[in-house]
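> call design_seq(struct)
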């Protein structure tokens, strides 16, 4: 198992950590010095394999949930 944990896994784990901590993909991306689409892709990629959803996604407009 350890041999399978490469850089991609740790990047995904870092992105996952920041999104759960900050509760915003955009703000997590800014904190990590990345762009929002890159972090969204990082989060969506592991969801495809087992077919699970890691986050309930909502769009926020003007600070409120839409």
């Amino acid at each position: 198992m350890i041999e399978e944990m490469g850089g991609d896994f740790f990047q995904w784990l870092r992105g996952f950590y920041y999104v759960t901590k900050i509760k915003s993909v955009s703000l997590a991306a800014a904190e990590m010095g990345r762009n929002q689409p890159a972090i969204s892709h990082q989060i969506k990629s592991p969801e495809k394999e087992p077919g699970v959803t890691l986050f309930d996604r909502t769009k926020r407009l003007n600070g409120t949930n839409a």
